[in-house]
Amino acid sequence: MSRSGYQREYHIAVLGSGGVGKSCLTMQFVQGVFVERYDPTIEDSYRKHIDVDGRHVVLEIMDTAGTEQFSTDMYMRLGQGFLLVFSITSASSLRELIDLREQIVRTKNDPTFPIVLVGNKSDLEEDRAVSRAKAFQLSQSWGNIPYYETSARRATNINEVFIDVCRQIIRKDLARARPEEGGGGHTRRRRRRRRAGGGGGRHEDEGGSRCVIL
Ligand SMILES: Nc1nc2c(ncn2[C@@H]2O[C@H](COP(=O)(O)OP(=O)(O)OP(=O)(O)O)[C@@H](O)[C@H]2O)c(=O)[nH]1
């Protein structure tokens, strides 16, 4: 339990096409290892305890299987926050997220539901097929959601994506508990503290939209 006495358990679903690195991202976050071989996921879930801004949270991370429809529906319902992952080496993997995001908004009936857009495999710059600008633009069109570029191989920006989605969930939780303090969905992305670390510089504009440049 943290100093604040706050403890919660949150379900985070990691969604995206097969092979984009969902399992590697999850393993790097939970166990601090990079797994080279490609072994398609059926369905896995992992627990991790972390502190976010002095609050203790337990994450139940659901590592999903590519675009398997049945399980996607289940994760949509269970998820309290989503990492939408594509590979920067695959334009189609970004396009496939458009439907997934629409499904989330429909299922949750909330266009400001906690989501982070993640461009993985940033170590493969020479094979880049999706420009930062294009991914960032998509994240903006989805209501200024955060966009990060990660490398599960190099452990770049891994903690950052999980912590970001956690912050969004906590903020929603607090806003629900204290609606009079004006934590409505539209204010949640306005101001964020600048964080160090991960080698990533973070850029914000006044609307709170941002892109991570590695
Ligand atoms: N270079 C590089 N390769 C990566 C990275 N992340 C994952 N990979 C490789 O990409 C392949 C697929 O990774 P997975 O994590 O299994 O992908 P997934 O999205 O979980 O795939 P499914 O289980 O089929 O949905 C593996 O060979 C990984 O080693 C990364 O950041 N950089």
From TrEMBL:
Residues 177-214 are annotated as: Disordered. InterPro entries: P-loop_NTPase (IPR027417), Small_GTP-bd (IPR005225), Small_GTPase (IPR001806), Small_GTPase_Ras-type (IPR020849). The keyword Nucleotide-binding applies. Signal peptide: none annotated. Pfam families: Ras. The keyword GTP-binding applies. SMART domains: RAB (SM00175), RAN (SM00176), RAS (SM00173), RHO (SM00174). Keywords: GTP-binding, Nucleotide-binding. Residues 186-196 have a biased composition (Basic residues). NCBIfam families: small_GTP (TIGR00231). This is Ras-related protein RSR1.
